[in-house]
Amino acid sequence: MKRNKKQLQKIPVNQILLGDCIEILDSLPAESIDVVFADPPYNLQLSGDLHRPNNSRVDGVDAQWDRFDSFTEYDRFTLAWLTAAKRVLKPNGTLWVIGSYHNIYRVGATLQDLSYWILNDIIWVKTNPMPNFRGKRFTNAHETLLWCAKTKDARYTFNYEAMKALNEDLQMRSDWVMPLCTGHERLKNEKGEKAHPTQKPESMLHRVILAASNPGDVILDPFFGTGTTGAVAKRLGRNYIGIEREAEYADIAEKRIAKVRAEADTSLLETPSKRKQPRIPFGWLVERGLLSVGDILISQCRRYTAKVRADGSVISADHRGSIHQVGAAVQGAPGCNGWTYWCLDVEGKAKPIDILRQQLRAGLH
After folding, report:
1. What pLDDT sits at residue 2?
2. What pLDDT, on the 0 to 100 scale, is given for residue 47?
């Protein structure tokens, strides 16, 4: 559904709002946000400095915003911001939250207490994790993302075809192998130090936003940091709202996002759903000359053949019917997608007839 300009004017899109995330969330219109992506404090409970074997200090997370006096205090904070986030989510909106073993189980319990519906837990497998310098535990090489619908019955957005295309035409799995944010992507302050200790890679936000939203949607990040969510949202033709209480981070984020070029051609940002594409009967391929009467189709395994009939049905040695019926019959299977099962022999290679269907669909646009 396209959002009109009047709707956008009611919420502060493409802005960074400075202040407490719960207070600002409570000030936004109810049911106005399509997706919330949250990277909250992890409550790492660090005590003392950590050093490498060469005695250099590890640049960990020791900021005040990550410190809580107790689990009870952290749970109270988590309950408050998740409650506020649920109020602003649209009925079919979704929420993503990332965490580590320090906090994600407590966050997950609160999500379920609030009747969010967990769709997936996704494991971010880090290709370049920080080693365990003390050698007393396994190297912590992953974090967890929880993807949740607002309710069990929500008709949430999931761009399945986009995820499959992104993964070389294989279903996207729930283990995402990505490096930590390093190199040129890692933002630095004036001293040459990390601008933010927990900056997430843009590749992760690219996948999240592409999977769960459409161009023009509003993505809200209540812990905006240095603006990764906003930068990727802008690049992908989405609107963003960032909430950040640290003025230093907000300033860095604003400058970063200003440099991002938004893609004007929104057709490049969408992967059409196959379910929404025009239905193409097999007979149209015969009517329009893409196949001829008598053409021989072969199965993918080359074990079976069928001839094309003038009425758009096919006939094998023992069966006659649609491409789907005959495909199922020759295999002794309950069903068959004839478009991908039957092929043409093109210079010794089996090419699925679905290629012809796609050519015909392209001509309809």
Report:
1. 42
2. 52
Q: How far is CA 262 from CA 10, 66, 90, 309, in A?
A: 22, 33, 25, 50
pTM for this entry: 0.76
Could you tell me which of 185, 192, 111 has the C-alpha nearest to residue 144? 111
Q: What percent of the chain has pLDDT over 90?
A: 73
What is the rounded distance in angstroms from the CA atom of residue 145 to the CA atom of residue 341? 37
- Strand-strand pairing, 142-149 and 117-126: antiparallel
Torsion angle of C-alpha atoms 79, 80, 82, 86, degrees rounded to 10: 120
pLDDT digits (tens, 9 = 90+) for 266-298: 889 988 776 777 789 999 999 999 999 999 999
CATH T-level fold of 5-274: Rossmann fold (3.40.50)
* Rounded distance between C-alpha atoms, residue 241 and residue 259, angstroms: 17
- State the residue for tokens 């300033």: 251
d(CA 224, CA 250): 8
3-state class of 26 per DSSP?
Answer: helix
Q: What is the DSSP string of 153-219?
A: T------HHHHHHHTTTSPPPSEEEE--S-GGGS-B-TTSSBS-TTPPPHHHHHHHHHHH--TT-EE
Inter-residue contact 286 to 310 (CB < 8 Å): yes
Helix boundaries (H) for the chain: 5-9, 21-27, 71-88, 104-113, 160-166, 202-212, 228-235, 247-258, 282-287, 323-331, 338-341, 354-364
